[in-house]
Amino acid sequence: MDSATTQQKRRVADEVAERIERLIVDGVLKVGQALPSERRLVEKLGCSRSALREGLRILRGRGIVDTEQGRGSFVADLNRGNDITPLMHLFSSQPRTLYDLLEVRALLEGESARLAAIRATDVDLLMIKRRYEDMLAAYDEPQPLDPREHARRDHAFHRAISEASHNPVLVHTLQSLSELMLSTVFASVNNLYHRPAQKRQIDRQHTRLYHAVIERLPEQAQRAAREHINSIRDNLREIEQEEQRLVRATMRLEGWQ
């Protein structure tokens, strides 16, 4: 095989890899999702089987695609690198970063809600509607759901809105924080949902956010998302202060001061 032919095959494989990367960046293929069959990919990408296999080999080398015997190829966990894990550990191990993360959530989710109200397709709106209804259905279950399931549904609703922003960098930035994001949602569910006033407030905020996005009102959607996150932050801070006052009062009662 001459060098020109080799270079041509390499270029085709690079193009295949780049097109699959674009599908991942655009959220068509998600982390952990199995890639379509080899036959389907060849048809969709309009390439040969050998070019596809070489393209997948390139992506495996970059850590973007994993292949397992019997499972096939799937999108790898893009946040598993050692440069991220310690940072995520530090953030999750320090309770005070909860408020820092809520500040970031207010900024990012406010913008994703604004963009979703502008860019959402009919399919996006259907997914947002389903996630919203899943969240409401949690309250009608015959047995109370575990707080983590409430948190998961709450998080899925916000995730559907972020995906409707059609900004891949924004979506992947939020996804890279998914575990920490889920922890803030769990904190709000665990501490606020059993308080009637706070729960009613959260329900109203979710409803305002939902309708603003569905009715394509970008400024209202951004404001609703920010107000929702900021009120969670303020409520959690107030609960924390109440608990600290209770601890101080107990210590005085027991003669510690």
Which short descriptors sum up this protein?
257 residues, mainly alpha, two-stranded antiparallel sheet, 11 helices, 3% strand, elongated
Brief summary of the model shown:
This protein is mainly α. Helices cover 73% and strands 3% of the residues. A hairpin with a 3-residue loop joins strand 1 (65-68) and strand 2 (72-75).
Structure description:
The chain is mainly alpha-helical and 257 residues long. It is built from eleven helices and two strands. It has helices spanning 3-25, 38-45, 49-61, 85-93, 97-119, 122-137, 147-163, 168-176, 178-192, 196-214, 218-253; strands spanning 65-68, 72-75. It has a two-stranded antiparallel sheet. Residues 81-85 have low confidence and may be disordered.
Topology:
Elements: H1 3-25, H2 38-45, H3 49-61, E1 65-68, E2 72-75, H4 85-93, H5 97-119, H6 122-137, H7 147-163, H8 168-176, H9 178-192, H10 196-214, H11 218-253
Antiparallel strand pairs: 1-2
Helix pairs in contact: 1-3, 5-7, 5-9, 5-10, 5-11, 6-7, 6-10, 7-9, 9-11, 10-11
Q: In what range is the share of β-strand residues?
A: under 5%
> Mean of residue pLDDT?
81
Structural class: mainly alpha
Note the main sheet: 2 strands, antiparallel
Cα(first) to Cα(last) distance is 85 Å
Anisotropy-based shape? elongated
Please, what is the oligomeric state?
single chain
Task: Give me the strand/helix succession.
Answer: HHHEEHHHHHHHH
Count of helical segments?
Answer: 11
Q: How many beta-strand elements?
A: 2
Helix content: over 70%
Cross-sheet strand order for the largest sheet? 1-2
CA radius of gyration is 23 Å
Enumerate the spans where pLDDT stays under 50 for 5 or more consecutive residues: 81-85
